[in-house]
Each structure stands twice: as structure tokens, then as C-alpha cells.
Specification:
Elements lengths: L2 E6 L8 H16 L7 E6 L13 E6 L8 H16 L6 E6 L7 E2 L2 E2 L1
Length: about 110
């Protein structure tokens, strides 16, 4: 159930979206050591974002995963900011990331919960 939600005001051309989504999915699976078949990536490009009083490229990211290791969130932040810098040219100082590890009984899938 690893889920990455990316909201950004950066321009993402329609023809580059599949590659960006695939890259994000692979990155999340590698970071968390979970099968990519469970990873969900949500891209909301072209969002209205104002960060630090200006509209330069910025991003808000949510990374959710059952059992997300809190001791590794700094490592995940570096990896995700690096990926956003490479993929969308977003400065790490213009990225907020929210990490969460929902309890198994509060996340549903396939007619049940985890």
C-alpha cells in the first residue's frame, strides 16, 4: 500500500507523465523495500502552489506506507528531494514532505483491510 502523492506547480508535459510516474513508482518501491505491484503514485501537476511567497517550482509530497520506518524518514527525504530535483528541477528548499504510517486496520484494499 505504499502511496506517493505529488502536488506540484511545475509544468509536466503530458508526454512525460508516464515516465515520471514510472520513475516515482520504482523509486518508492526501492526506498521502502516493497513490491512495486503494491505502489500507488498520484501526480497532481499544475497545482496552484505558493511557497515562501512566490510561485517558483515547488512540491508537496505525501509518502504513506504501513510500517514506514520513522528512523529512515531523513534518508527518504533526501532521496525524494534528489529525485524531484532531477526529474522536475525543484529545489529541495521548496519541497515539503509528509510521512505517515497508517495502522493496518485503517487502510483498505481488495474488499478488506491490511
Amino acid at each position: 500500500m505504499p502511496t506517493l502523492r505529488l502536488l506540484t506547480n511545475a509544468t509536466v508535459a503530458p508526454e512525460t507523465r508516464p515516465e515520471l510516474l514510472a520513475s516515482a513508482s520504482k523509486r518508492v518501491a526501492e526506498l521502502l523495500g516493497k513490491p512495486e505491484s503494491y505502489v500507488l503514485v498520484i501526480l497532481e501537476a499544475g497545482a496552484d502552489l505558493l511557497f515562501g511567497g512566490n510561485d517558483e517550482p515547488a512540491a508537496y509530497v505525501e509518502l504513506k506506507s504501513i510500517g514506514l520506518p520513522e528512523s529512515r524518514t531523513a534518508e527518504f527525504a533526501r532521496a525524494l528531494c534528489g529525485w524531484l530535483g532531477d526529474a522536475l528541477k525543484i529545489d529541495p528548499q521548496r519541497v515539503y514532505i509528509e510521512f505517515s504510517s497508517p495502522p493496518r486496520h485503517l487502510f483498505g484494499w481488495n474488499n478488506a483491510t491490511f
